[in-house]
């Protein structure tokens, strides 16, 4: 029986991981937008043979294989999120407005650092897959190809399903680049086998009882009220007040709003994801771990309200 590799690309799953101890954790973990390179987990221990398990199961450190010698894999399935993308169209507009507002903020040592910041988030790139996102997918693919190379004798062994979102299709192609490296197949040959299935990848937009249920719409609307209430509540307002205080900005018409502070958090997360965890983003310096946890909770609440199954029967 010939083995096969089934790849599924979607846009709403996320991964969790541990941040580097040398950097502040809240600057690296960014909810559903956390970069793969930051939260890729512990696969490296199998690749490098550093654990007892890997020592027993790897054929050699140069040719890793995580299955026992008496077993032979027949199929491998992977359900994978798209790579790191640029901010959404809405957030990109808000970033530009935040940059413009800085012109009217009083000058001091802290605000001057923000005023020198250059906005590299162009409107035409909104929500598109970034170059770092492409590299993430290539590296993920090359790692799995090394572990499961006997499942990939030719292009016929690969079945790839993607949604029709541009960033997801680009991620799938980048993944195929990684699979093709070092194997007797090429990306063009593999990409011809790509299938677009929104009914699988974005089922929540197509399933009528899920997307258009009167009861579910009501519960989703009620949940969005919770999001709005939280952003105007004491925890979020306290974060806004602390950020303004750190910038020596009094509460007046030029002080930053809670939504603008959220955009600062978005900028911190995206700059770390796009430019690397070692990039010194000035926006990250404005937020403490407590601040970031409050803002991440608000984002989780919003994501749940928009997409999660809300009925109980």
Quickly list its features.
alpha/beta, 313 residues, four-stranded parallel sheet
Major sheet strand order: 2-1-3-4
End-to-end Cα distance: 42 Å
Alpha-carbon Rg, integer: 22 Å
Low-confidence stretches: 11-23, 42-64
Helix content: 40-55%
The pLDDT mean sits at 78
**Broad shape:** globular
**Approximately what portion of the residues adopt beta-strand conformation?**
5-15%
Description:
This protein is α/β, with parallel strands linked by helices. 47% of the residues lie in helices and 7% in strands. It has a 4-stranded parallel beta sheet with strand order 2-1-3-4, covered by helices on one side. It is globular. 28% of the residues are buried.
Strand-helix topology:
Layout: E1 4-10, H1 44-48, H2 52-57, E2 75-81, H3 89-101, H4 109-115, H5 131-147, E3 158-162, H6 166-180, H7 187-191, E4 194-196, H8 198-201, H9 203-206, H10 208-211, H11 214-231, H12 234-246, H13 258-275, H14 289-307
């Amino acid at each position: 029986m010939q083995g096969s590799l089934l790849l599924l690309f979607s846009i709403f799953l996320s991964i969790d991981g541990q941040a580097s101890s040398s950097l502040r954790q809240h600057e690296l973990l960014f909810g559903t937008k956390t970069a793969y390179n930051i939260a890729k987990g512990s696969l490296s221990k199998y690749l490098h043979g550093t654990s007892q398990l890997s020592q027993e199961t790897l054929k050699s450190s140069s040719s890793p294989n995580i299955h026992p010698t008496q077993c032979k894999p027949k199929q491998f399935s992977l359900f994978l999120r798209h790579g790191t993308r640029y901010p959404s169209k809405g957030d990109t507009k808000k970033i530009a407005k935040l940059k413009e507002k800085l012109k009217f903020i009083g000058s001091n040592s802290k605000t001057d650092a923000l005023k020198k910041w250059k906005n590299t988030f162009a409107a035409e790139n909104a929500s598109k897959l970034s170059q770092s996102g492409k590299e993430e997918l290539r590296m993920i693919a090359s790692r799995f190809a090394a572990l499961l190379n006997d499942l990939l004798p030719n292009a016929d062994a690969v079945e790839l399903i993607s949604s029709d979102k541009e960033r997801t299709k680009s991620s799938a192609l980048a993944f195929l680049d990684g699979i093709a490296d070092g194997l007797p197949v090429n990306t063009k040959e593999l990409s011809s086998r790509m299938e677009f299935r929104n009914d699988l990848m974005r089922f929540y937009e197509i399933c009528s009882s899920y997307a258009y249920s009167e009861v579910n719409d009501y519960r989703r609307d009620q949940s969005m009220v919770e999001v709005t209430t939280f952003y105007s509540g004491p925890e979020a307002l306290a974060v806004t007040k602390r950020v303004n205080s750190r910038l020596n900005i009094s509460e007046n018409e030029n002080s930053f709003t809670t939504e603008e502070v959220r955009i600062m958090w978005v900028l911190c997360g995206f700059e770390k994801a796009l430019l690397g965890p070692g990039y010194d983003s000035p926006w990250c310096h404005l937020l403490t771990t407590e601040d970031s946890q409050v803002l991440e909770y608000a984002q989780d609440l919003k994501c749940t309200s928009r997409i999660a199954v809300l009925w109980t029967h």
